[in-house]
Amino acid sequence: MPELTVVIPIYNEEASVTPLIEEIVAVVGLDPDRTEILCVDDGSSDRTGELLAELRKTYPVLHVITFETNAGQSAAMACGFLEARGRYVVAMDGDGQNDPADIPRIVELLDRYQVVCGIRRNRRDSLAKRWGSRLARTVRRWVIGDSIVDIGCSLKGFHRDAIRRLYFFDGAHRFLPVLLEMEGCSITQIDVNHRPRRAGVSKYGNLGRLAKTWQDLLGVRWMQKRKLDYQVRERC
Q1: What is the pTM of this model?
Q2: pLDDT per residue over 123-157, tens digit each?
Q3: Nearest to 90 by CA among 153, 22, 156
Q4: 4-226 belongs to which CATH class?
């Protein structure tokens, strides 16, 4: 069983996938007994699938799961988490903006914490996306009162056993640290590098996420309010 699984949900990233996998391999190595890279192709309609198949021939640590049709980031991440064999799981985006060089530090911290959340340092996104994230963070904290600085940063580390305990719903990927905190997991947050998108286009916009995220926020708030809370005094 490998120590680490790197999970990458990926959709229509033909221009980014090859350099990204090469970078990750340079960081985590080629020993399949220690590491696996698990790409979940979320029904890509470009050459992403073909390129992953070619990379698979070169890198034995790479495994690919391909969806029949596009199911969304939450589904791709949930599938990756359930299929991961590593004791630790690091999730990252497939667009190359997350820096694989941060993976070893996240893995080191997973020896002490069950969840490690990245905080994008010097975020390299458009002003509109940065302001949208600030507004979303303000609203999220008002509704559910969490302390996660950059919940939108996909670069996160988890204990596999902890992440598998979650109930996944469409949109759950936006709230993973909050949901895990509700399960009693220990969490730390660290600065990570953030890079400009080298090619391709973003699949997300502020307006497109707003309506769905608001519904998800209310759902998470309901879960917080209804969570069972008890302590066992003794067992006989």
Answers
A1: 0.86
A2: 766 666 666 667 677 777 787 878 899 998 999 99
A3: 156
A4: alpha beta
